[in-house]
Design brief:
Helix content: 55-70%
Strand order of the largest sheet: 2-1-5-4-3
Number of helices: 18
Strand content: 5-15%
Radius of gyration: 45 Å
Number of domains: 4
Distance between the termini: 62 Å
Number of strands: 12
Structural class: alpha+beta
Length: 530
Amino acid sequence: MTAPASHSSLDVDPARRKALRYFNLFRLIVAAIFLVLGTRIGLGSEAPRFFWFVALFYLATVLALGFPDAESRIGFRRLMVIQGFTDILILSVVMWTSGGYPSGIPVLMMIMLVGNCLLVEGNIVPFMAALATIGVLTENGWRAFIDHGKMNAADFFQVALACISFFIIAIVAQLLAQRARANASLAAARGVALAQQQAINAHIIRDMRDGVIVLRADGVVRQANPSACLLFGLEDMEDRPLADIAPVLAEYCRTGVGETGQLIELGQTRYLLRCQVTARADGGEDGEGESDMLIFLTDLEDIQRRMQQLKLASLGRLTASMAHEIRNPLSAVTQAAELLCEEKRGDMQTRLAKIINDNARRIERMIHDVLALGRRERTQPEALPLVEFVTELFEAFGMGGESEGAVFRADISSKLTLGIDRAHLHQIFGNLFSNARRHCSGKPGSIRVYAENAGKGLVRVHVRDDGPGLDEHARAHLFEPFFTSHPKGTGLGLYIARELAEANGFDLELLDSDPERPGAHFILTGRSKP
């Protein structure tokens, strides 16, 4: 029997349990006053010893029912009913020993009734009012009987008014309690909905590509999402002054509140960022007081890359359709040039046929690169032994003679592997080796390929030549499509190489030039295993 009561008590609103504790404290004070000062204030005048016994019993009952163990054993609702009945019965007896209605005990009964009605639910509320009415009417009826009609009409009217007040108070208290519980349920439901919304907003902000920072009025970061921390190369920014992290941004926030769309450069991140600052007043109705600033940091280069990807996607669809239309007449031109070579009418005709064939092949290579521009095949990564793969490529490039093979030199450990698609890696290295061969000095070992273990399962592969290097303009546009410094190049090789590297989760980058060791220096970084 105790298990259901204990379980039901766990579902009670903590606010009601707290109100019960205060109400029990009030009962304890009343019982103590009855026991210590009762006879001095005129209570129990008609039966002092019996009154003292009743007051002692009330004090013991309040203490016994006030312990938390009583609620766990009896249950909250049953405990409230028992305490309410005890209050009415004890006060009815006290009223009988104290001279009846004029003692003022009915007023105390009203207070007890209000407290019980606010805490108890259901039909028990009017029953308690009826019980209080029966107690008062019984006591006054008995007193009228033994006093042989000494009570006048005014006394009966006051008793009747008190009994009516019991029901009115019970009904009003019950309505107020129902309204309070409805408001509490509504507040709890809205609290749950608000918590869910906050969790969703926190998840959205955490996964945003933009950096979001909440800055206090004193310049200290209140909150920052992972993207903002990543931009500044930090694991956590909270409770740190923004001036210590990014002085330029802190100065802008101090002087540029309300301005949006401004471009600022943060040297620590090497990004060009767009910063939006929004002021939020926390100072009351007039908007006075301290306020937080909400800062959005958007990587402008990332926006430009996405815009470029959209443009290239449209360009890829257009060029793919054009390439198919060009291939048919190009095949006819190539075939006609071969027929001219077969007739052998003269050196001039042979030379013209060679020019036609060379340009037709160049157009064919360009069409192949353009088609590859709009098509990124699904990767099939595998663990490729790096030294064996590079050696095979060296042998393919060295088929032009022994001197060609001597140009390449590898310094790679036999234990290193790359988790990448074989065909994609072949195309990436093929492009890097071709460019290096075109611009190197041609001396033995002028193209050097070496690799290193970068830790955390990553491998870096370096491709370096001893050529003249690249100027600043070429470096800025090197990986853009259709940019080339070679008269017969398509300008798509390095762009496709980087696209294939990114498709496999790798990074392809060009290091800054070294005045002491000129030449291009490319690094391919990626996983050692798929």
